[in-house]
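Subject: Predicted fold for Oxidoreductase FAD/NAD(P)-binding domain-containing protein, 157 residues

User T.R. writes:
Posting the sequence so we have a shared reference for the thread.
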Amino acid sequence: MPPEENAVLICVATGTGIAPYRAFWRRCFYENVPNYKFNGLFWLFMGVANSDAKLYDNEIQEMAASYPDNFRVDYALSREQQNMKGGKMYIQDKMEEYADEIFGLLDQGAHIYFCGLKGMMPGIQDMLKAVASSKGIDYEKWTENLKHGNQWHVEVY
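User M.O. replies:
I've generated the structure tokens; pasting them so everyone works from the same file.
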């Protein structure tokens, strides 16, 4: 996690990939860390098949209710929701709904984290590449800048 208390954290998870983010949100919202009081934005994108697979959902809903200015959650439920094209809703589809906001936040220094099954990355990268192209952005250069700025974090398995 970045040390800045006002950081924007965009956390993208599939399945059990949510576990590391639990440590993040506990630090942000529950732990009493000396000289640290999170006042940024923690935005969680969680992709699972069904509602009953939403891990830590009680905590997530509690944070959403308790910290409406600092915590957002968007679920991609592949067997329950449809994307804008009428197909299954995958994590990249949910992110694409907010592409302008995500790109804007990243341009302003937000950090983006990806954790979960490595199979999620090609779809996410294809979506980000298409959005970048539509904005006249060189995707390769853009992601390299994010990586060099320590804003792009990938932990997939």
